[in-house]
């Protein structure tokens, strides 16, 4: 068993917030500062390893034990439903998972009367569950990005997607209809690592908890 603690971090927008937070509890990786295409970085002195992976792949690396700890959006966890220990809400990466549609369409219909709709989304599982609970039949079109394009070209009239500033919806003539979930980034931990590396991992969790608690108190 490696005596390193390995982190799987998403390459995209969450990476910087994650490293800033870890820095506050003394977990750093000077090797990551450079401009490099490397995917694995190490701090040999303090025995931490960092893997840069796609956001949607983080749970897989943690589930299979290639990483002990991961940082991932709650949206990805809800969609994938993997058996992972999720001890902490890291409070960054805030956005909302929304049902949205063109402004003109909302002006001429009442969403509470939907019985059969077509929806484009990166989140087919969440979308199916959400509408099943409401008794709405849904035809799902799975996309991998630029979801707001779908209604513009007639692929699907509605979408389920993340909204942060609302700029993407607005610039494409769409409006929010319903909120499915409020999203933040979460710390996830491999269940076996939690036992085999218990001391180091529980220390990381309690240290993070303190920092996050302090920040929440300070920011009100
Ligand atoms: N507009 C946004 N504002 C804030 N947080 C967001 C926004 N979009 C996504 N997120 C959060 O950041 C996470 C990672 O998003 P990012 O765009 O970096 O990767 P992705 O492109 O969705 O994933 P992949 O690379 O696997 O396709 C999302 O799962 C979500 O939790
Ligand atoms: O409300 P806003 O601040 O405009 O952010 C929302 C947009 O951000 C995300 O897309 P991303 O930038 O990840 O690109 P993608 O569409 O290729 O996934 C999301 O899927 C929305 O399209």
From TrEMBL:
Question: Has keyword Manganese?
Answer: no
Write down the PROSITE patterns for this protein, in alphabetical order.
ATP_P_PHORIBOSYLTR
The Swiss-Prot or TrEMBL record annotates one GO molecular function as: ATP binding
GO cellular component assignments: cytoplasm
**Catalytic activity entry:** 1-(5-phospho-beta-D-ribosyl)-ATP + diphosphate = 5-phospho-alpha-D-ribose 1-diphosphate + ATP
Q: Which CDD domains does the entry mention?
A: PBP2_HisGs (cd13595)
What family, per the record? Belongs to the ATP phosphoribosyltransferase family. Short subfamily.
**Which named protein is this?**
ATP phosphoribosyltransferase
Name its species: Syntrophotalea acetylenivorans
């Amino acid at each position: 068993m490696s005596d390193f603690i390995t982190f799987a971090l998403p390459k995209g927008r969450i990476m910087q917030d994650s490293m800033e937070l870890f820095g506050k509890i003394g977990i750093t990786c000077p090797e990551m500062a450079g401009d490099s295409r490397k995917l694995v970085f190490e701090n040999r002195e303090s025995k931490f390893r960092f893997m840069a992976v796609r956001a949607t792949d983080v749970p897989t690396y943690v589930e299979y034990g290639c990483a002990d700890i991961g940082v991932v959006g709650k949206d990805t966890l809800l969609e994938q439903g993997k058996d992972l220990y999720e001890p902490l809400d890291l409070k960054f990466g805030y956005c909302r998972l929304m049902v949205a549609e063109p402004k003109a369409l909302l002006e001429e219909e009442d969403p509470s009367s939907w019985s059969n709709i077509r929806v484009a989304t990166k989140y087919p599982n969440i979308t199916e569950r959400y509408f099943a609970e409401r008794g709405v039949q849904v035809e799902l079109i799975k996309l991998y990005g630029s979801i707001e394009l779908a209604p513009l070209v007639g692929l699907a009239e509605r979408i389920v997607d993340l909204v942060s500033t609302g700029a993407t919806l607005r610039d494409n003539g769409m409006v929010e209809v319903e909120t499915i979930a409020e999203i933040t980034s979460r710390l996830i931990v491999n269940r076996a690592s939690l036992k085999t590396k218990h001391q180091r991992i529980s220390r990381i969790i309690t240290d993070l908890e303190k920092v996050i608690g302090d920040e929440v108190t300070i920011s009100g």
